[in-house]
Write a structure and sequence with these properties.
Elements (H helix, E strand, L loop, with lengths): L10 E5 L8 H13 L5 E5 L5 H5 L11 H7 L3 H4 L1 E2 L6 E4 L8 H4 L9 H15 L6 E5 L6 H9 L2 E7 L8 H14 L5 E8 L6 H13 L13 H5 L7 H4 L4 H15 L6
Parallel strand pairs: 1-5, 1-6, 2-4, 2-5, 6-7
Antiparallel strand pairs: 3-4
Helix pairs in contact: 1-12, 6-7
The structure holds adenosine-5'-diphosphate and magnesium ion.
The site of adenosine-5'-diphosphate has 17 residues, from helix 1 and helix 10.
């Protein structure tokens, strides 16, 4: 088993695409698990009110659980909301509860509404570093919208990972996302870059998948990972067992491809070079 290189500094990724069902959550949890499986310290922040990433990592997220909602709205420290994932020693998760559905509106009237996640995460990362437990990767799983929750994720991150589903309209919805990222870069976070694009639900038997993959690679030659994630039943089954495919079926094609994608990410520099 390969050991992935440990980054010099904590790398913070936001997994974003305003389209639903393209594989954001699946990518967030499986990349996080694949990195943690190599002994890297990983923190996944679930910022989608659906809490699908929390479910997939086997983390409780009923309404009473201390969650990212309390961090964003009530100034609870991130440390209090962090939970240990059962399947991986070095993977932690800040869960999302359904309360987060109201946060989009509650955030509007708060001070520094776009920077709340960045601040809370900054404090947590400093504390961890001071205690000798530096976090190597932070992965933020976003909702399928471009509201204040996603803006908080873009402000807190350095890198954006965009999962693209290999289907007909894949590139069409992307221009809105790219425009929004440019706005964030201009006004809120000049350090943000789209470092990584991952092709998901690739079906090698169809011309369509191959065509979409070609198109995306032509538009984003630097960012697209060489590994594409195949369509796989094992990947879609794993969450119902509160597991990632990395622990659910480690030898399946889905687990192997996520491990390969994670290795590519680990081997790349911060600017995707
Ligand atoms: P998003 O977070 O963008 O809404 P999800 O990661 O939740 O998307 O994926 C949407 C659905 O597709 C889920 O039911 C998930 O299990 C399934 N899915 C994701 N990736 C794959 C894949 N590679 N093969 C098969 N099913 C997948
Ligand atoms: Mg999702």
């Amino acid at each position: 088993q390969t050991t992935f290189p440990r980054p010099d500094d904590t790398r913070v990724f936001t997994i974003a695409n305003q389209k639903g069902g393209v594989g954001k959550t699946t990518t967030a949890v499986n990349i996080a698990a694949a990195l943690a499986n190599q002994g890297l310290n990983v923190l996944l922040i679930d910022i989608d009110p659906q809490g699908n990433a929390s479910t997939a990592l086997g983390i409780d997220h009923y309404s009473e659980v201390t969650s990212i909602y309390d961090v964003l709205i009530d100034d609870v420290s991130m440390r209090e909301a962090v939970a240990q994932c059962p399947d991986f020693d070095t993977l932690k998760c800040v869960p999302a509860t359904i309360d987060l559905a109201g946060a989009e509106i509650e955030l509007v009237s708060l001070v520094a509404r776009e920077q709340r996640l960045q601040r809370a995460l900054g404090i947590y990362l400093k504390e961890e570093e001071a205690s000798g437990e530096r976090v190597d990767y932070v992965i933020i799983d976003c909702p399928p919208s471009l509201g204040l929750l996603t803006v908080n994720a873009f402000v807190a991150a350095r890198e954006v990972l965009i999962p693209i589903q290999c289907e007909y309209y894949a590139l069409e919805g992307l221009s809105q996302l790219l425009k929004n990222i440019q706005l964030i870069q201009k006004h809120l976070n000049p350090e943000l870059s789209i470092s990584t694009i991952l092709l998901t639900m690739y079906d090698g038997r169809t011309n369509l998948s191959a065509q979409v993959a070609d198109d995306v690679r032509t538009h984003f030659p630097e960012q697209v990972l060489g590994t594409a994630i195949p369509r796989s039943v094992r990947i879609s089954e794993a969450p119902s067992y509160g597991q990632t495919v990395i622990s659910y079926d480690p030898h399946s094609s889905g687990a192997l491809s996520y491990r390969e994608a994670a290795e590519e990410i680990a081997n790349r520099g911060v600017s995707g070079g």
